[in-house]
Write a structure and sequence with these properties.
The structure is a homodimer of 312-residue chains. Chain A has two domains: 139 residues, PurM-like, N-terminal domain (60s Ribosomal Protein L30, Chain: A); 140 residues, Phosphoribosyl-aminoimidazole Synthetase, Chain A, domain 2. In chain A, 33% of the residues lie in helices and 25% in strands. Chain A contains nine helices and twelve strands. A six-stranded mixed beta sheet of chain A has the order 8-10-7-11-9-12, sandwiched between helices. In chain A, strands 3-6-4-5 form a four-stranded mixed beta sheet, covered by helices on one side. In chain A, helix 3 links the parallel strand 4 and strand 5. The longest helix of chain A is centred in the N-terminal third of the chain and has 17 residues. The radius of gyration of chain A is 20 Å and the shape is globular. At the A-B interface, helix 1, strand 2, strand 3, strand 4 and strand 5 of A face helix 1, strand 2, strand 3, strand 4 and strand 5 of B. Chains A, B: It comes from Actinoplanes auranticolor. Chains A, B: Pfam families: AIRS.
Chain lengths: 312, 312
């Protein structure tokens, strides 16, 4: 059955029936707006949009995969402020010939990914469009902490990482060359595994800056370096190339460090910590902050490309 | 200059430079997420999406007009809960050949409309897309009041309206027949004039239910009737046909009451009040609630069409 047959309200009813609720959902879907708890009198809010053909392909990812990824991209932004996600709102633009099941499974993926952190889909909007588009807004709770900004890195700080880099980019390359394996990489592209809890943990431990790695480690650390008016050096040896990535890189003729250092979409969190901080489990040191500008790798400019610009 | 030339980050810089700030903006654009004040430990949140060709046309509306309308559609949803809007987040999907000025003026319109109620654009995302799409999320503050839902209307209540109906629908019809006047109607379509303050006022006065009229009065009151398990009767005589609307209707061969009762996009607020409530300025009685189901006009079923389904 296509969406043209169910109509807007029929589809909304079917989607809402699939959604789980969350502790912060004071009023969920069905009214003009949702009401979400904001216990410390502030709410953290971020929006990310996924466009078919640009951020996903229906022949590469299932509807549930796209839902998981759309949610993860947003929830990671909330975690990167040191906050705990509470709610998602979803604007869904769909071609009228889209099967209803696709929209339902997308919503299931969004809801399931949100439930991992105790958040829920509380509202949304829907329209027909020639281009399948999913815009998600995530809300979150700072639990009384100050938000961890991009601008607080200090010379001498340690740069640390929670989560994987390069896996999603490698999976994307694999898929774009017509392969479906290795599964590790393809699955990483389809559904990022984000260390959500690492964000609040870093905030509690005194992280001086933090960012969600969505466009590539070097590019995103470039935002931290610029906002903090510091230089950042990455230690290439801190990045191990997993066997399956090495094999794929070799087969495809790619330098795996381009994936690891410049590949986006894994949504690892990068943070800076004062020197001597005992890093919590899940965080590992990958570089250091110094006086200066820009991002280097082993103290040299990086030549392998820096990441993703959605208009180039 | 096109967006392909400025690139994603160049365009974001230009847009952010145009934004005004708001009292609730604790942290505005530029980090992974924004931080917005939520003084009463709750936040009201709503999302609406506008798609080119479906919700607007660039030859009918300026970029600033589209920005005003996208903001108004969302801010009205917040007002319809009885809340005061605090912030907007904007996901913007644009063709790469879109002139940069268009995106800048759109953002200016969003920011200016938000500023009318003291709210501000605090964040967003941007992507290229073949289809120009604007998804806006609005946040708001209930100031300690309970949200006014669709489900609280009681038999005996008065149905009241704040703001215009039918003007935007008439403007749309005028434009779709190739005319550019009357200005009153065309301007109403381009930039709705929403009585934002009427929402919180109605909440303070004990409104039992409230809704933003976005799809047409009869259709949207149908949601109130269904959620409240009541019937609603609208008094046709409560709707005056303005001269310019009467002339346009006559010239175009349209029944103006179809615009007034079934036309959307003016974002009037409809609310129900207990019998005997002295309606505040800006609100006028247009009908009554009774035991039963559905929405009637002068106690009869309405035959003129009920409103807008985005998939039909």
């Amino acid at each position: 059955m296509s969406i043209a047959e169910t109509g807007e309200f029929g589809l909304i009813t079917r989607i809402v029936a699939r959604l789980e609720t969350g502790a912060a959902s004071l009023l969920g879907p069905g009214d003009d707006a949702a009401v979400v708890a904001a216990p410390d009198r502030r709410v953290v809010a971020s929006t990310d949009v996924l466009v078919e053909g640009r951020h996903f392909r229906r022949d590469w990812s299932s509807a549930a995969d796209v839902g998981h990824r759309a949610a993860a991209a947003n929830l990671a932004d909330i975690a990167a402020m040191g906050a705990v996600p509470t709610a998602l709102l979803v604007a869904l633009c769909v071609p009228t010939d889209l099967p209803v099941e696709w929209a339902e499974e997308l919503s299931g993926g969004l809801s399931t990914e949100a439930a991992r952190v105790g958040a829920a889909v509380v509202g949304g909007d829907m329209s027909s469009s020639p281009t399948l588009t999913i815009a998600v807004t995530a809300l979150g709770d700072l639990a009384g902490r100050e938000p961890v900004l991009r601008s607080g890195a200090q010379p001498g700080d340690v740069v640390a990482l929670a989560g994987r880099t390069g896996h999603a980019a490698a999976g994307y390359t694999v898929l774009s060359r017509g392969f479906r394996t290795p599964k590790l990489l393809v699955e990483a592209y389809r559904r990022p595994e984000v260390e959500y809890a690492a964000g609040p943990t870093a905030a509690r431990l005194g992280a001086t800056s933090m960012i969600d790695i969505s466009d590539g480690l070097l590019q995103d650390l470039g935002h931290v370096a610029a906002a903090s008016v510091v230089g950042i050096d990455i230690d290439r040896a801190a990045f191990e190339v997993p066997d399956q990535m090495r094999d794929a890189a070799s087969a495809l003729g790619v330098d795996p460090y381009v994936w690891l250092l410049a590949g986006g979409d894994d949504h690892a969190l990068a943070a800076t910590f004062p020197p001597g901080t005992q890093l919590p489990p899940g965080w590992r040191a990958v570089g250091s902050v110094h006086e200066g500008t820009g991002v280097t790798v082993d103290r040299r400019p990086w030549q392998g490309g820096t990441g993703w610009d959605h208009f180039r």
